[in-house]
């Protein structure tokens, strides 16, 4: 019988990854806290624009998660140089896709914001923020690719330093540009782009220091896109859910969309905090399967499930205690504060479920079981989230209906990933799958 993976090793991978994962939501959380004091209308504009930008990044997570899955197996098999070369190709893909995002985003920013926000001043504010924020897209994607290959070779310390640089710069610049320079909502977008450029530059420097070929390799990029297909389809399910939720909230009231923005950004932040365990799971499971240690990978899947459950319980208890004071950090608008409790207690109660789901997502992603995760996420969205969200719009259930949909989505995912993990069908050894 193989030994358990030492908890110290899990924490050593998860703790630095936690800060890295939280980088993008932290940009928007800082924006939310700073912009929230401009009033409900700029906050609502940030809510719509922030959801659109976040969905672009969410849609392209294969640059991070798919790269980790491929590099971890190669690293586990003792082929580190080839693992790093996967990162080179992921970086080229990030630059190409990022340039495309800028072009299409500028063309579609107006129609997308009006579709999501219902037109009017909310949509106008969203477009003003989004047109600037989009210029950071290639750099966000390069950072994702850099995180992916570094996680695969179990180097989580350098990404931590690179992301801290970006977040520190954004946190300092955002209030200066928004309030000090009187740039308003647009100032927060400028601060983010500057920070994202600097972080991406540090990841590029790290690749050059590895002394591997930096030339594009269409064959490897095609292979990465093959795995990315399933992850993109999975991300589409998330996109449909959260865009629908933001759209229904925007059509409820300005207070409701502002409240949804505050709670959703906290949810996104905590989801990625919990996902730090998934990053450790990806790296450890991928390396174990690459080294043909199947039983160790299966044993670790249940070990990390327990960690995720306890982590989620602790976070739920913490944010239950903060239900009174924390929302006031983000806004003083009475209409927004009155709506926040309608979503807050769903957010708190879902943390233990999320802890298990995200941990097992990491196990299955590390094993390259993307096809199953695609199908499970699409089914959970179609049967759980979307029906309740749009019923909320039809029957006027507001944020209670929207967050009931998120709860159904998470419970369905929990059942499906537990059944899959128990089956053991995901644990295929070797450097390919």
Summarize the structure in words:
The chain is mainly alpha-helical and 433 residues long. The protein has one domain (7-423). Helix content is 83%, strand content 0%. The chain has 18 helices and no strands. α7 (137-152) packs across α9. It starts with 6 loop residues before the first helix and ends in a 10-residue tail after the last helix.
SS element count, helices: 18
Q: Helicity level, as a percent range?
A: over 70%
Radius of gyration: 21 Å
Which strand-content bin applies to the residues? under 5%
The unreliable regions are: none
Distance between the termini: 25 Å
User: What overall form do the CA principal axes indicate?
Assistant: globular
* Biggest beta-sheet profile: none
- Mean residue pLDDT: 87
How many structural domains in the coordinates? 1
Order of helices and strands: HHHHHHHHHHHHHHHHHH
Indicate the structural class. mainly alpha
Strand segment tally: 0
Subcellular location: Cell membrane
Keywords: Cell membrane, Membrane, Transmembrane, Transmembrane helix, Transport
Protein name: Putative MATE family efflux protein
Organism: Saccharothrix texasensis
Attribute tags:
mainly alpha, 433 residues, DinF-like, 83% helix, single chain, 18 helices
Task: Provide a short characterization of the protein structure.
By secondary structure, the protein is mainly alpha-helical. It has helices at residues 7-21, 23-35, 40-59, 65-76, 80-117, 120-133, 137-152, 157-180, 185-208, 218-250, 254-290, 294-321, 327-330, 334-339, 341-349, 351-366, 370-395, 398-423. It is globular and about 55 Å long.
